[in-house]
Amino acid sequence: MSAEISGASVRSTAEAPRTAAVVLAGGRSSRLGGVDKATLEFGAGAAPAAADAAAADAVGGTRGSAPTTLLAHVLAQLAERGIAAEDTVVVGPESLAAHVPAGVGVVREDPPFAGPAAGIATGIRTLAAAPRPSDITAPATAGAASESGTHTGAPALVLLLACDMPQLGVAVDVLVEAATAADPTSAEDPDAAPNPVAWTACTPDAERGGTQIQHLLSLARFPVLAERCRADDFVNAPAKALLKGLPVAYVDVPEESGADVDTWQAAESFGLHASHPRWHEAMHLAHAAARPLAPQSVALAEAVGLLCAEDVVAVRPVPHYDSSAMDGFAVSGPPPWVLDARPGDTVEAAGAEAKPVATADGSTPSPTTTPLPAHAAGAPLLPGRARPVLTGGAIPEGASGVVRSEYAEVRETEASGAEVRPNAACPDSEFEPGRHVRKAGRETQPGDVVVPRGVVITPAHVAYAAVNGFDELPVIPRPRVGLLFTGDEVITEGVPAAGQVRDAFGPVLPSIVEHLGGEVVLTLRIPDSRELTEDAFDRFAEAGVDVLFTTGGTGHSAADHVRRVAESRATATVFPEIDVRPGHPTTLGRMPGGPTDASSTESGAGPRSMLHVGLPGNPLAAMVAVRLVGVPVLRALRGLPAEAPRTVRLAADLAPWKVDKVVPARRVREASGRVDGHSPNAQHAEGARSTARDGGTSAAGEAWEPCGATGSNMLRGLSEAEGYLVFPKVGARADDPVPFLELPW
Length: 745
Known about the structure:
By secondary structure, the protein is an alpha/beta fold. Strands 1-9-7-8-6-2-4-5 form an eight-stranded mixed sheet, with helices on both faces. A hairpin with a 3-residue loop joins strand 21 and strand 22 (417-422). Helix 3 packs across helix 5, helix 7 (279-289) crosses helix 12 (619-637) and helix 10 crosses helix 11. The longest helix has 19 residues, at 619-637.
């Protein structure tokens, strides 16, 4: 049984009882690319409106202040409301202990990812333990005050929260007020509804109307839940299972207080970004940050390689008429057959002019013996009659089948004129009903899907669409790409002098973009200049590019203008850098673009947004960044799904290093020994790529090793590579599976 309580109407002067909190922070975040939500950071000056000044200070409300994490922001709001650190438990990975204040507990449900109810139950059992286990408490900093002596016994109430609601402070206030409000129901009244033991927030549902119950924005009486969680671990149960059967009051709270960070678009709206994601997190974030372009209809010849935006459905049968599979004679009934038309005569087609028929012996027709058009079946074929027909020609009504020309002969008779008879070589099978007749609709029926939504259109799809009568196909268009090359020291031809470097990007990035399905619409080259960089960004925005790739200028020196200009224009920063080598200074963000929004499938016009992929200046670092960030962005814009990396077997041990490394690599064949690294065979390399694409791990009898010369400023190793290996920072042993990424060409 439940009661409805309006948050706006609940007021109480009673002192709030001691309240604890269990904060879930260890979900899979699948819609956010698997990134740890709790450690997403607010950009400077981009924190959401906080419930009060203290929480606003905690998130860094002024430009230039230190960023804070989403989890820290939520915990700051709880602390401002008097919820002690010792009464707060975060359920998530152990690594979160570095992101919480002193005294806050960090525990993990067992098994991990056992669901929200199991996570809350773990937190409740932790709070109920006396004394608090020291090994779940974040280490106290020097001089930090602890409130461990201010409370004894168990709390009266406990908040059940998810860490991905940045503005939950107001909802917490309303829930606590509801719990402490005087109960107007007399305890002596046997007909009265039972007093609530839990209060769950409800927010307006703008999309579907009505309200949405926020089970992970609830408050409950601690002793009741503690007893429940002692008896049940709630593995793989939803959050509402914890309160099943209990009297719950549903409390209205403002819509914004229940807004959560469930997608990358929601993260953008709160100014959140990932700080230094690992390689796989960066790939997922890059894919999630880009939205498929709006569908367009293009001519068949332009559709190959594009993603089909919707099912293309047949509107007529294919073939759309009964046709002959052979050159010969359409016949009706058993032999012999009187020939309806002799070679050179004409056969009347219904509604058409008379046309000369072809010769029955297969000889090339003269101008006066033009073959009967395929669509002209002529008058119905009477029993005992035959009529010449070519492959693909229409079968006349009344025909029982087709006799191939090599099994037939035409004879002149006095009684009936020309007569068709089977010759001595003709098998009995030629007289079977329907022989050599392609029935209408045998390939396609109306309503059949000709090209399914979501496939990359091939020449075969185009040909099949053509025979079905389509002139255009609905597709996700090619992303419009801009390329900006920077650097005072870069020359585009000749041998560089001391202090100069030869451009390695200009000759290859356009072809890589084209290979990945993009269309380069504007290319600029500028020296290191803040003013010129600003002007270049303006030109790309005016050109309406969907994604801008820049090379160089992503470091933190005085000459790195690309990073500064991008940060000053960004409406959202997906990540400022990535935690991988080479490629660490890679940045991804969103900024204003042209006048109309062609980068969204949403209806209606709006400001166009332009994604910016900032590639490092070192050539191998930039190539790695293209693979980790550029490929996912272009795939998402084209409507393609995120990649699932394969694994291959490692040839030798790898020592641990400080971060993950993405290294050009080649295949080693055990049967023939190590592959010569200077000039790998092209066919061998293609076989390696096919293995990685088609299978989960490398084939038996082969392993992979890093190429030589793979420093961030080197390209020789990449020129010898058959793919990229991802070396985990913890190291690996020979024969261990390690992630493998195909080359983007």
